[in-house]
C-alpha cells in the first residue's frame, strides 16, 4: 500500500514539475499567436499560427525587417514588420522605402511590386514627420512598424512609433496550418 502511495506521489510530483516548466516557458520564453486579419499578406495569412520568441529582445535590439508582435492596446496584440530603427529617418515615396535618404529594398514586397500596374500604389507616400508624434528621427527605445499589406494595415502610420518595451517578441515560425509550415525569411 505504501509503495502504491509513493508511486502516485511520484506521478503527481512529475506532473506538477512538467506544468511548472510549461508555465515558465510559456510566460518568459515562447508563446503561440494566431494571426488575425490580412495586414501581413502575402507573408502571413489570417489564422496562421506562429511561435513568438519572447526573450530575443532581452539579448539584443530589434533588427530591420523582424516580424514582431507588440501590445497595440491592453486588449490586443498586433503583428507587423520592423521598418525603422532608433535614430533613423523614414520616408516612403513612389512605393520606395528610404532610410536616412537611402533607398532600401524590401524583398518581402518584391512579388507584390512585380504584379503592380504603374499607376497602382502599394504604400502611400509619407515621411516620419507626418506620422503621430511628428518626430524628425525615431526616438531611442522605439521602432517604426508597417504591415506587409500596406493598403490594409493599422501600423505606425496611424499608431506612431512603437516603444520597444511594448514588443512581446519576434516571430518567424508558422506551425499551422500544416501546408504553410515554414520559417520566415526576408
From TrEMBL:
Reaction(s) this enzyme catalyzes, per UniProt: Cleavage of hydrophobic, N-terminal signal or leader sequences from secreted and periplasmic proteins
Domain named Peptidase S26: residues: 9-176
InterPro entries assigned: LexA/Signal_pep-like_sf, Pept_S26A_signal_pept_1, Pept_S26A_signal_pept_1_CS, Pept_S26A_signal_pept_1_Lys-AS, Peptidase_S26
Localisation: Cell membrane; Membrane
Record Gene3D superfamilies: Umud Fragment, subunit A (2.10.109.10)
Keyword set, alphabetical order: Hydrolase, Membrane, Protease, Transmembrane, Transmembrane helix
Any single Pfam family the record assigns to this protein: Peptidase_S26
Chief localisation class: membrane
One example GO MF annotation: signal peptidase activity
Transmembrane segments: 12-35
EC number(s) per entry: 3.4.21.89
Topological type in the membrane: Single-pass type II membrane protein
CDD domains per record: S26_SPase_I
Highest taxon of source: Bacteria
Family: Belongs to the peptidase S26 family.
Record's protein name: Signal peptidase I
Organism from which the protein derives: Virgibacillus halodenitrificans
Amino acid at each position: 500500500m505504501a509503495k502504491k502511495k509513493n508511486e502516485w506521489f511520484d506521478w503527481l510530483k512529475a506532473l506538477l514539475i512538467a506544468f511548472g516548466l510549461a508555465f515558465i516557458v510559456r510566460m518568459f520564453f515562447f508563446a503561440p499567436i494566431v494571426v488575425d486579419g490580412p495586414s501581413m499578406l502575402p507573408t502571413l495569412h489570417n489564422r496562421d499560427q506562429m511561435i513568438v520568441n519572447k526573450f530575443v529582445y532581452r539579448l539584443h535590439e530589434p533588427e530591420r525587417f523582424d516580424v514582431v508582435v507588440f501590445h497595440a492596446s491592453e486588449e490586443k496584440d498586433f503583428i507587423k514588420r520592423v521598418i525603422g530603427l532608433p535614430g533613423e529617418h523614414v520616408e516612403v515615396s513612389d512605393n520606395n522605402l528610404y532610410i536616412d535618404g537611402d533607398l532600401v529594398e524590401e524583398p518581402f514586397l518584391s512579388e507584390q511590386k512585380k504584379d503592380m500596374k504603374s499607376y497602382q500604389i502599394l504604400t502611400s507616400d509619407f515621411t516620419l514627420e507626418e506620422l503621430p508624434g511628428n518626430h524628425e528621427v525615431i526616438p531611442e527605445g522605439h521602432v517604426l512598424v508597417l504591415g506587409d499589406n500596406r493598403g490594409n494595415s493599422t501600423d505606425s502610420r496611424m499608431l506612431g512609433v512603437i516603444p520597444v518595451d511594448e514588443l512581446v517578441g519576434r516571430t518567424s515560425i508558422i506551425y499551422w496550418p500544416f501546408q504553410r509550415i515554414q520559417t520566415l525569411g526576408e
